[in-house]
Amino acid sequence: MLRDRPSPGSRKLRIGWHEVAEVGVRPLETVQRLRAALPVLPGLPEMYCLAVKPVAGWTGPESRTDSKGWVRVWDLGATGVVPFELEAAPERFAGDRWDTEASESDGG
């Protein structure tokens, strides 16, 4: 049976490109919250991920979805640089929904 939604505890995410409104590099909110709550950790770097914003009505797993509805797809670490091999997919399939400047904006 092919599942469109991951089961609880699953690390797999299935979302069709037709269900994606935007794709971009996003800061991880969990790290932002840690930095705000624990100012004694000044060396804690910003962490980024490749994320998708689903079309209205599609809800991602709570553990991967931030407060603005972006669903984490791939962790990118502190650099926020999308590996060349991975960047080919959103360039090919997302087209104008692929926002290479998303991490520099106000968070979309």
Structure description:
The chain is of the alpha+beta class and 108 residues long. The protein has one domain. Helix content is 19%, strand content 22%. The protein contains two helices and four strands; from the N terminus they run E-H-E-E-H-E. Strands 3-2-1-4 form a four-stranded mixed β-sheet. The chain starts with 19 loop residues before the first strand and ends in a 9-residue tail after the last strand.
User: Which sequence of strands runs across the widest sheet?
Assistant: 3-2-1-4
Strand content: 15-25%
Structural class: alpha+beta
Q: What oligomeric assembly is this protein in?
A: single chain
State mean pLDDT (0 to 100 scale). 75
Approximate shape: globular
Largest sheet: 4 strands, mixed
C-alpha termini separation: 35 Å
Count of domain modules: 1
Tally the helices: what do you get?
Answer: 2
Give start-end ranges of low-pLDDT stretches. Answer: 1-8, 103-108
Radius of gyration using CA atoms only = 14 Å
Instruction: Give helix % range.
Output: 10-25%
Order of helices and strands: EHEEHE
Number of strands: 4
Lay out the secondary structure.
Elements: E1 20-27, H1 29-37, E2 48-54, E3 71-77, H2 84-94, E4 98-99
Parallel strand pairs: 1-4
Antiparallel strand pairs: 1-2, 2-3
